[in-house]
Each structure stands twice: as structure tokens, then as C-alpha cells.
Amino acid sequence: MSTRTGKQIIRIENVRKAWGSFTALNGVSVTFREGEVVCIIGPSGSGKSTLLRTINRLERQDSGHIIVDGITLDDDLKSIDAVRAEVGMVFQSFNLFAHKTVLDNITLAPRRVRHWNREKAEQVALELLQRVGLAAHAHKYPAQLSGGQQQRVAIARALAMQPKIMLFDEPTSALDPEMVNEVLQVMRDLAKSGMTMLIVTHEMGFARDVADRVIFFDHGNIVEESDDPRTFFSGPQHPRAQSFLTSYSGL
Amino acid sequence: MKNILQDRDSLTLIGAMLGLALILGLMSMPLAMLPAPIGPAAEQFSDGALTTIKLTLVSAVIGLVLGVVTAMGKRSHVAPLRWLADFYVWVIRGTPLLLQILFFFLAVPALLQDLNIPLQISEFWTAVIALSLNVGAYNAEVIRAGINAVPHGQIEAARSLGLNPLFTFWDVVLPQAVRISLPPLANNMVALLKDSSLAYAIGVVELSMVSSRVQAESF
Ligand SMILES: Nc1ncnc2c1ncn2[C@@H]1O[C@H](COP(=O)(O)OP(=O)(O)O)[C@@H](O)[C@H]1O
Ligand SMILES: [Mg+2]
């Protein structure tokens, strides 16, 4: 795939993050290229979410460097807001604004941050809703939607900012099984469109099919990394990856 | 939706309260027809009720703003602002309203005089100051609870979309916090209406008399 040679878009250098004596990220270094779809897997508590959250500064790293699309994430608030506008994030618990309609959820940030007028923001929002199959629900409130629908709205909301990178933190973990596929399908389509995507997931089948690269996390470190997901899932090298994948052998 | 129903309940409550006060005010008309001693005093009675309404409305608005500002102060990253907000709420909630009213009617004028500050505050505005400071502290607690009840994930989502802290508060947190706080805020307003008659009663009583009585009792 061309993504092997795509230009670097995220560079993480020796990043550490600890809470008290607990080390969540233990000197992680990794780079991501434009257009790449990377799935991050690993046991609960291994630091996967923390890694994603340092990339848009929902968590501040204790040390190390993070460079996103040429912008170094330091304590300068302008650089943090600039990065956040380029990086979309989708959460496990959807986090839609409960008091706003689907349409207003999507148009809020483009209007406030990109300064689009209402007309343009709504036009883009409706196109995105079409894309995620929810055009008929534009005027509903989040509470009136199923979990799968809410998550698709959340994806549309993040895409409305026209980000260069999308972060997904276990986007299907809070969903009833019958709703998982509708969300994964939207993500597959997005991957095909060439979006740079970092996806924390326990959906091994999805990761095997869609990922250009798989990263396995354990105890705040990347312990295995593979450019060939099929080979990785059929025969991981690291013992922790082996035992972890065995517990998902329903694959 | 449940939220809208709650809103309506609260609005009805406030509406009914003001209506009641208005009826009390208008009651002077039939009362004025009655022979002495009721008739001549009816005017005073209605004046009192109307002043109470005015007092309540003005104090409610100031108290609401004060409540939001104090709730924000309690969440501020700036420690002295947090301390100030905490101290204010602690003092108001830790002392009886009667004491606060007396403080503003008796101690403050004396203090201003001692400090040679030529500032005369009318009875009405003295009552407004005492009442809005009082209700503001209670509102702050209620609004803070409302803010805390807004799921943190929504704040993170807003920030991850690039919204700055101000827009995040204005567009995401405050509307939901106010909605959550509305029923207890309405309760505070009802209490305020009752309290304002207290303040009014104290204000119209001959102040020198009150002060001499307080002095006689305290010393
Ligand atoms: N705000 C926080 N305060 C304290 N500990 C935290 C906080 N956030 C995460 N942690 C800890 O960091 C560890 C790694 O968390 P996380 O990155 O969420 O793991 P994962 O996403 O791989 O399950 C967890 O064990 C968690 O307890
Ligand atoms: Mg996680």
C-alpha cells in the first residue's frame, strides 16, 4: 500500500505519562504516516487510551515529544487548539451533547472554530449524515437514537471539522452486539477514503481486515508491531500478545 | 421530554409565587373600602407587597448572576478565586439570614461613617445587597451541582473538537447545568420571596429602635 511510503503525520518520541506511582506510558516512540490505518490492541489498562489522549492533549505527557502535522504539542494553548482542530476523536461512550439535536451537535464546532455560517455548516452536516446513513434523524436528540446511531453521529460530528487524523477509542465497546457492524461499516468506508486512522479496538476481525499496521500494547509499551495484520493475528511473536489473542480466539 | 416538563414545573412555581404576591398587592383596593383602622392602612399594606416583589425580582437577577460567577469561581484554576468563592459561600451559609440583614442595615452604615466614606445606601438597596448576596451563595451551590452533573465526556468531546474553554462552558456546560439546576433554583426563589418580606419588615422598622434593642440585648 502507498501508506508505507506516505509522509509522517504523527511523531511520538519517548513519551511518558504516570499517575502517582502508576506508569501508563513508559517511553513510547512511534510514528504514523498519512493515510495509514493503525489498530492498537492490548489488555485493559495497558495505556492505549492514554496514548490516543496525549495526541490531542486530553492528557499532557510528563516527558517526551509529540508532533502532529508539523505542530509540536507543547504548553502553548494555540498549538493545542490547532492540533485539536486537525484531529477528530471518537469515544467509547459517544459523548454527544445531550441538549442539542443531531444537526446542532455536528454544526457547533465548525461554526465556532472554523467560523462557517449556519448554511454552510448545515449543508456539510447533512452530507455527512447521509454518508453515515442518518439523514432522516437530523432533528432528533441523542436520547432518541440507538447506541449505534449515536456513535455514527459522533463520527459525523468529528468529520465535520474536516480533520486530517481520526482517533477512535474503543468505538464499539459500549454497543449492543447487533449495532457493532453498522459502526464498523462506517469506519471501513472511512478507511477506504484514505483517512489517517488510529483505532483502539477489541474487534480483532475488523483489525485484521482493515489495518495497515497493528500495534500491541502492554504495560505502557509497544511490545509488538506488525505491518502484516494477517500474519500477526495468526502467529503473534510476543508471549503477552499470544496469551492475549488466545483469549479472543473466537476470532 | 422530562427536562421540558421540569422546566415547566419550575416556571409554574415562580409564576404562581409572583401571582400570589400581586394579589396581595391588589388586595388593598377592596380593603381600602373598609372602615378604620383597616381602610387607611390598606395603602401601606399594598406598598409593602409591591416593594417585596420588586425586592425579590431585583435580588433574584443579581443573585442568579452571582450564583453563576461564584460557581465558576469554585471551579477556577486560579486558587485565590477558588478560595474567595469558597469563603463567600461558607460565610453566607454558616450565618443566619437575620444576622446578615442586620449587618447590612446596622453595621455597614456605621462602618462607612467610621471610615469617613460619604456613602448613603437606601433601605431598598441595602435589602437588595443583603438578599442577593444571600441567595447568590445558595444559587452557587445549586449551579455548581448542575455543572458537575454534566457528563465530563461531553466536555472532553467539545475540547477535542477544538472548542476553547469559553465556548465549551457557554455552549455545552451552562445550558445543561441550568436545566438541571432549575427545580432547586426555583426553590431558592421561593425562599427569596419569603426572605424579602423579612428584609422589608426590618428595613421599615425604625432603625434606631432596632439598634438600641439589639444593643440592649447584646451588652
Ligand atoms: N486520570 C487518571 N488518573 C489516574 N489514573 C489513570 C487516569 N487515567 C488512566 N489512568 C490509569 O492509567 C492506566 C492506563 O489507562 P488506559 O490508557 O486507559 O488503558 P487502556 O485504554 O489500555 O485500557 C489505567 O490503569 C488507569 O487506571
Ligand atoms: Mg481504554
TrEMBL record, chain A:
UniProt KW Iron-sulfur keyword: no
A molecular-function term among this protein's GO annotations: ABC-type amino acid transporter activity
PROSITE patterns xref list: ABC_TRANSPORTER_1, ABC_TRANSPORTER_2
Gene3D superfamilies the record matches: P-loop containing nucleotide triphosphate hydrolases (3.40.50.300)
InterPro entries: AAA+_ATPase, ABC_ATPase_HisP-typ, ABC_transporter-like_ATP-bd, ABC_transporter-like_CS, MetN_ABC_transporter-like, P-loop_NTPase
Domain ABC transporter span(s) in chain numbering: 10-244
Family to which the UniProt record says this protein belongs: Belongs to the ABC transporter superfamily.
Record-given protein name: Amino acid ABC transporter ATP-binding protein
CDD domains xref list: ABC_HisP_GlnQ
UniProt KW keywords: ATP-binding, Cell membrane, Membrane, Nucleotide-binding, Transport
Coiled coil (residue ranges): none
Source organism of this protein record: Candidatus Dactylopiibacterium carminicum
